[in-house]
């Protein structure tokens, strides 16, 4: 803000003095108003607002922008949604921890294995049910017990393979250990994918993941010599599509998306032993300066219109009970009768307290072993 020079002349007229003071006050108000929102908006005071949204990168960002953000902005011309792409939930957690006084986002996605930690640390705020009425339309599995961010997507862990290079489709988690795939495996498991895989392997090995994960860790150690890469670049789906890897572990929804975009080269498979549901939650960041606009956006994102549009595009299962996907789409999502029948139960509230320890063991004993 420019400074105003004070005159030493005592003959300055009272009217002029009042005008200068009034101008100063107005200018100070304008400067203050333009800085109230950390995301560049004007807070909840009205006028044009910007909601900063942290969401996953790549195909998720493309589909979410097309089917959720653009229609929301069209219906709410006074609100702009700024999409900040992130790699994973751990990155979101770190960014929010580093900006508690002036948060870098208003709304953030975070998977259910990490979100309880953010809630406990008060990085997210409970939602106002009067501002987010679509909370009442969610299926039970999507609801937050403590009033924080609900689920916005359901997905499941799968095996991915390149249909040109792999002649016999894998059907089991155990197929990852087949000698024919040695040196052709992409295994990005130093995150929620690895945690979910441990749960699946514990079932196969007839072990209890709450008691002891040594059996699963030992099994993964046996796989280690056959892994081509633990960090496929830019992502595991592209690595499978290009043929840089023949078989991998990844998420079903992105696998289905790449199946279409690759002309069927990428193929996700639900292993016969079952799979693990992955839940992404959508959350109001604590101390957001745009709480009204942010909650309006969250309400739209979990509404039936946005849920159907996004799931038709990106192959996630809907969280809103009013959504009915076409049969050919539903059968490729976590909502399919086959996948619903083969979901391995997971206590994510318990697992969130072990998440970091499990990932550390994967990094140290499996990847670095």
Tally of separate helices:
14
Radius of gyration from the alpha-carbon trace, in angstroms = 25 Å
How many β strands by DSSP?
10
Structural class: alpha/beta
Query: Helix-strand pattern, N to C?
Result: HEHEHEHEEEHHEHEHEEHHHHHH
Structural notes for this entry:
With 369 residues, the protein is an alpha/beta fold. The chain has 14 helices and ten strands. It has helices at 14-34, 59-75, 89-97, 115-120, 192-204, 214-223, 236-242, 252-261, 291-301, 304-314, 327-330, 337-341, 348-351, 355-367, and strands spanning 49-56, 79-86, 107-111, 124-125, 151-162, 185-186, 227-229, 247-251, 266-269, 277-285. Strands 1, 2, 3, 4, 5, 6, 7, 8, 9 and 10 form a ten-stranded mixed sheet that branches.
Please write out the topology:
Elements lengths: L13 H21 L14 E8 L2 H17 L3 E8 L2 H9 L9 E5 L3 H6 L3 E2 L25 E12 L22 E2 L5 H13 L9 H10 L3 E3 L6 H7 L4 E5 H10 L4 E4 L7 E9 L5 H11 L2 H11 L12 H4 L6 H5 L6 H4 L3 H13 L2
Helix pairs in contact: 2-10, 5-6, 6-14
Give the tags:
alpha/beta; 16% strand; 38% helix; 14 helices; 369 residues
Task: Give a short summary of the structure.
This protein is an alpha/beta fold and about 375 residues long.
